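To the wet lab folks,

You asked to see what we're planning to order before we commit. Fair enough. Below is the target structure as tokens, and below that is the sequence we designed to fit it. If anything looks off to you, flag it before the synthesis order goes out.
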């Protein structure tokens, strides 16, 4: 809001305390609402009211939106955002790139060419005014968040209230996806749209269009291309007779390449330069940080990080197996199979396995999990993922490092380094323990469909 309307500038302890309280109260509210979901009706105006609230303020929780603006500005002015240092662009005098905050002042883009084009368009609309550039980016984010809602309601027409509880008015998701204005919100919208256009039955043109949207998502952040694996399995292997499988898979590949090739030609092969340099990063709030700190003195940083990558791959497989054992695709009202619901379920499992097992993971990496959650039957997934998102949100609050007092930095960094990794480790144990104890039995919040979904379970 304009400073003239809100002249009060809260201190760092107040900001951190309010945000922590907000996440905690939001998590309790989510749990209560999920328990009482059949007795709760979401007003039709509420999503639009939340959208207006988001557009009246500025993004909170991190400074990522500022370096998104900088990458778009560099691309707009003919530079290479994957090689240029934002703070040094135009000698440090550019009105947009010079506003990038620590720790990203010298970091070139790690994002793909599709979202860089979006950032370029936003920079053009903002016309050298950093606030205008960020506001247009907020419009993109709010539109993406509403697109996810529309797509999910279209796929699950009898579950609008469920969609709104899990995605639209979920305080954890809304604060991270919309108020945080993270690029993962756009990638999530592209993936959910890719599932939407597939339709309930296989069609070659629809599959090709879906492939193009997956390419756009993967050209935003490459990890989102995993949706293509789920679509290929459900629509190209399990959902069609053997005689049609090759045609479906070719259609998917053609659509993917038709979008991906021009995008990457435009980036001139530089889109993943930074990704190669950061592949061995280990974030502070993951259990792998405990491994890194324990083994690095004896084995050295390089060897330890290589071992962690191998361990993360194994853990991802284990967590995927646990997810698939403890959940099912949500049945439709008439119990008819819907390939789109099965696809969302599998995408959610693959995304969860990556985000939960990855050495480097941040709260907004979980957004696609929540974008698929309305299509998942199995309350334990919502409970455990809700706890995980709460832990990560608190671990990275406040994400902006400018203006922190030493005491606030000590408390927030202490939680991030000393508490969150152990809580995440406990969640690994909970997932694996629940899957092992039930060994394929499901505790569901919805009746399980009588038709057997495409078999994906280990």
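Sequence we intend to order:
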């Amino acid at each position: 809001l304009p400073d003239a309307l809100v002249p009060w500038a809260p201190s760092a302890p107040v900001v951190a305390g309010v945000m922590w309280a907000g996440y905690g109260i939001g998590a309790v509210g989510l749990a209560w609402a999920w328990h009482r979901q059949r007795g709760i009706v979401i007003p039709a105006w509420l999503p639009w009211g939340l959208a207006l609230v988001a557009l009246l303020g500025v993004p909170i929780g991190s400074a990522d939106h500022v370096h998104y603006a900088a990458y778009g500005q560099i691309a707009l002015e003919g530079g290479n955002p994957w090689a240029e240092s934002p703070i040094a662009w135009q000698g440090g005098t550019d009105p947009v790139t010079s506003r990038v905050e620590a720790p990203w002042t010298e970091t070139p883009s790690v994002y793909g060419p599709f979202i860089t084009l979006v950032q370029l368009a936003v920079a053009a609309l903002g016309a050298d005014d950093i606030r205008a550039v960020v506001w247009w980016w907020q419009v993109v984010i709010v539109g993406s968040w509403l697109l996810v809602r529309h797509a999910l309601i279209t796929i699950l027409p009898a579950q609008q209230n469920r969609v709104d509880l899990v995605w639209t008015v979920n305080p954890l998701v809304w604060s991270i996806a919309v108020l945080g204005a993270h690029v993962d919100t756009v990638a999530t919208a592209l993936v959910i749209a890719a599932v939407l256009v597939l339709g309930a039955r296989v069609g070659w043109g629809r599959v090709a269009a879906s492939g193009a949207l997956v390419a756009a998502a993967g050209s935003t952040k490459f990890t989102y291309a995993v949706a293509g694996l789920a679509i290929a399995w459900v629509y190209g292997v399990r959902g069609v007779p053997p005689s049609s499988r090759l045609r479906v898979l070719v259609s998917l590949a053609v659509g993917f390449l038709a979008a991906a090739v021009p995008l990457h030609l435009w980036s001139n092969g530089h889109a993943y330069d930074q990704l190669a340099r950061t592949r061995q990063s280990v974030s502070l709030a993951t259990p792998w940080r405990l491994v890194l700190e324990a083994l690095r003195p004896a084995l050295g940083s390089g060897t330890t990080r290589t071992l962690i990558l191998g361990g993360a791959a194994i853990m991802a497989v284990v967590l995927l197996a646990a997810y698939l054992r403890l959940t099912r695709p949500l049945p439709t009202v008439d119990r008819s199979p819907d390939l789109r619901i099965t696809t969302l379920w599998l995408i959610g499992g693959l995304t969860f396995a990556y985000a939960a097992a990855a050495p480097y993971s941040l709260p907004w990496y979980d957004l696609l999990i929540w974008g698929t959650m309305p299509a998942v039957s199995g309350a334990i997934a919502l409970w455990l993922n809700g706890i995980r998102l709460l832990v990560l949100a608190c671990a990275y609050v406040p994400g902006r490092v400018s203006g922190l007092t030493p005491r606030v930095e000590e408390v927030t960094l202490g939680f991030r380094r000393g508490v969150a990794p152990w809580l995440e480790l406990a969640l690994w144990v909970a997932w694996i323990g629940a899957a092992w104890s039930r060994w394929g039995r499901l505790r569901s919040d919805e009746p399980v469909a009588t038709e057997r979904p495409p078999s994906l379970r280990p």
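Structural context that might help your review: The beta strands are 328-329, 376-377. Residues 442-458 have pLDDT under 50 and may be disordered.

Thanks,
Computational group
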